[in-house]
Design a protein that fits this description.
alpha+beta
């Protein structure tokens, strides 16, 4: 969650526009093989977002460092469970 807070405002706006996770709202309304979405606290509001559509960002040079940090943070979390 800390990494999301550190994202630039343009990326936060993109997240806020993200599609809700259908499966987390109604489990039978999406593909049964879907891993389900993610819960993100954005601007004090809890969002339930689709991991496959909400976390796609327009790639621009000014976002490189933020994206790199987001990927590194995710890698560290995944390596903890190995």
């Amino acid at each position: 969650m800390d990494r999301i807070i550190a994202l630039p405002d343009t990326m936060i706006k993109e997240l806020k526009k993200g599609q809700q996770c259908k499966r987390m709202i109604h489990p039978d309304s999406c593909n049964s093989k879907c891993q389900m979405g993610v819960n993100l606290l954005i601007g004090g509001e809890m969002k339930v977002l689709c991991r496959y559509s909400a976390l796609f960002f327009l790639i621009e040079a000014k976002k490189y460092e933020a994206l790199k940090g987001l990927i590194e943070s995710e890698m560290k979390e995944r390596l903890k469970s190995v």
